[in-house]
Amino acid sequence: MVASGKKNVGRPRKGTRGLDLKQVIDEAWKIVDEQGIAKLSTRSLAASLHVQSPALYWHVKSKEELLSLMIEDLLQHSLSDSPAGMSWQDWLKHIGRRQRNLLLSHRDSGMVAALAPPTERLRTELFPKIFGPLVTAGFSAQEASSTAGALAGMVLGWVIYEQRRETLEFVESFHSPGEGFELALDLLVQGAQVRIAPQK
Does domain 13-61 fall into CATH 1.10.10.60? Predict the structure, then answer.
């Protein structure tokens, strides 16, 4: 007789093909890239991974959690291999460009980010890494996090516009999306320079 117990719920059975979290995240992005976010579910992901749902639930319990893990992975990637010794101005521009490019490398990533609930890891690890160089430069924690939040909002909104054909065509009727993004980055950094940096 098989014993039951909450601590074993979702644990992959002995003999089933093992999964790691990176494999789960990569496969989720593959589904979104090929079919769009509407086709992503824990059921479709389990089928794509050729596993039973309990094996997947050991890593991720819901679609919302899955979306959060997907965005966490992109944010972590945007922070990896970043050059050391940049000014806070160059750091903000570097992170903004990295995040936009990574988001644009996946279909519907703007909507994934918009729907993904913030996680504890985002609050305690990833977001502080983004605004950390601003604190080092003399910004208060509130100033630094607000500036990084403004950057995140700009990047996400820009990507959502670029990923929808109708809004992309609207933007392109006025200016190049890439050139416009660079100008927006400059304006954000210059605004922070005028509003905050002279007070230090």
Answer: yes
